[in-house]
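quick one, two chains, predict together pls
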Amino acid sequence: MKPTTSISTVTICAAGIAAVLLSSCTSAIQRNKDEKKRVTSPYNPYPPGILPGDLNSEVERVLREVDLVENRALARWHALALPIVRGQPPTLQNTGTEAIETLGELMNFDRNMSPNRNQACMSCHMPYAGFGGPIPSVNLTIIAYPGTAHFRVGKRTPQRHAYAPFFPVLQYNQTQGLFFGGNFYDSRATGVLLRNPDAEQAQGPPVDTQEMGFPDTACVAFRLTTAAYRPLFELVWGAGSLDIKFPRNTEAICDIPGGASTFRGNTMPIDLTPEDRTKANDAYGHWGQSIDSYEQSVQVSPFSSKFDAFLAGNYNLTADEMAGFELFNGKGNCNSCHLDGRGTTLRPKQHDTGSAATVNPLFTCFGSANEGVPLNPRNAFYYETTPDSLGFVGNPYGFGYRDLGLGTFLRSGFGSGPNPNSNWTQFAPSVDGQMQVSSARDVAMTPPQCPTTEAGSRPYFQKGFFHNGYFKSLKQLVHFYNTRDKFAFPVTSGHCPPGTIEKVTCWPMPEVKNNIDMTSGNLGLSDKEEDQIVAFLETLTDGFTRPYPNIDVFTGTCMTCNPVTDPNCSPSRQGNGSLIPTPPLPSCASVICSAPPATSPPIP
Amino acid sequence: MNKTLARDLNMNTLLLKLAVTPAVTCLLTSNPIAAQVSPTTPRAARVQITQGPAIEMNKEFLTIVRWTTNNPGASPEHYGVVHYGTDPKNLSETAKSPIRLNPDHASTVFRVRLDNLKPRTTYYYTVGSEEANGTDDGAKSAVKQFTTPGESQRAGRSRAWD
């Protein structure tokens, strides 16, 4: 064969091969673009008025704030003195603690931990809200936050991260007949594997279909390999800990939100070898542990409130704050669940002469309770009954969904997680409707420019309280504890009888009637006494003894109203302008309310 | 640039920065874990009903029975128990509601919900209480009675307990 012909043949073949490869590559890129295009097509099954009008701009606003804090954390990392590895076992001496806490902070504020690179953990948990929900209009309306796939939305308010790390591993206490510990409202982050519920909570949102939304937990490790802070990760968790042979299609997979029909229910679509899957799982565990380390630090949980100063003798509670404190322990009986560190069983005729707690009380018992909160029809979750552009359906049961909280988790039920302990399942009927007792600390935290959570003559930061955000002010929350049964009506929200005012003189019926805690409901508190308890709750806000880090990054707008012209411009009626009538409720979906062991009594 | 080289360069850059950057005042310290759960307190030698039982609320859709005892102690979660029925000699129905003891308090208020009773019906009842594991506190009332309102009646008596 003449060389020229050979060269020509090779050239043709090479060109042909290149053309095929280019075609394949182009097809892959096009498929990826098509997927991205589908991903970015907004999902909007909601009736008009359900989504707040400023949702897109507010989500973008929070992302800018997330990036700002991330940059601060990067600067802090770069200024960190290198820890010295010493001892046996080898330990990062001196700045090892700061290293892991800074790593956790960087992870929390990394928007790349989502398929569309548009959602960080902190998109829903910003410092100025006590690491709770950062968008006032969302808190007022849909109460849960859109995930990476807009507008898939979850079903509960974002819990505050502050003091969450102190919850113990979920346990059933035989003597007390109660569950304690875990994270999430339904305690499904048990801590069973990492021995730390807060760390396991941090593992949830990255793969929650309605939140950060990765389709595979290995995507966390995958995105960590390209994270700016990868060197810090490997400093803390070991060189080579991210050396994983990811298949070539990993990037394409991790760009698609979980739950997409293309995955056909497969929760591990990335085809890793067993060894690499283990490495990816280890990285996923270290992700959670790093975040927990940050959340346990003084950046998040500093015990720097007025109340802490009071305990140390450095602050005198005002008359109303002290009155509220005494009511909290006395007639209000709040500290039976929101433990304030005191507690002495008194004998007859004995008077309580004990002083306030000298330890740092967490204002929770780590347990759960059903307070009989009404169903909130504003919750976007009820409307997600149709598939999005990826074929995912968030809630096929619509208003047939009932949030049984811990009860659903113990049954490994819809919308919760797998229960790792079959010995617990039998207790499900006794805990149906129960939600975790949150720490009361930082319940009133707001950005400095919006000095209160309560509507009135001052600018305020709108929050949503309890798991379904039904309560829009601390006043309403306390009033509910005080009068839930006194003003009970057999109606759903939006249908209070004429002559009554919802949340003032009318409380709709509980979403779940089973196991309602009767410690509260008719406390006999006066209006002033309710206000005093609110004043006391406000003393639990961190940032008094020293500044609360990153509380200054809120760039949104405080809400304002005119109490003269707006009848709902008061803490008592706050948010009532956004009430909507609950549609006729279908029976509870059998997959929820008929799952064994059966609810007792049956839930309609 | 492959990932290993990029990582090495990043690490070298980090080390260089660390070498020339003064130490930062430690801003991040860990907090001591202050685990706390509701305490199990000593069981009272004797539990007695000191007030009630009485009907706190008697609406067409909800009746609440209320009574007070000395603090029974033991498990922090307790249950008020109402045995009731339309025959005073056969109180065949049972309603239980959880309450949370407060170890600071010398007395404990028990309140139990009775949902979906029949209208215009006289019910007889006794009350008692038990720990979370079902151990009876030992206090039990005499048989008492109440009559539910009719369906056409609006909310019945409901008052805050003094």
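The radius of gyration of chain B is 29 Å.
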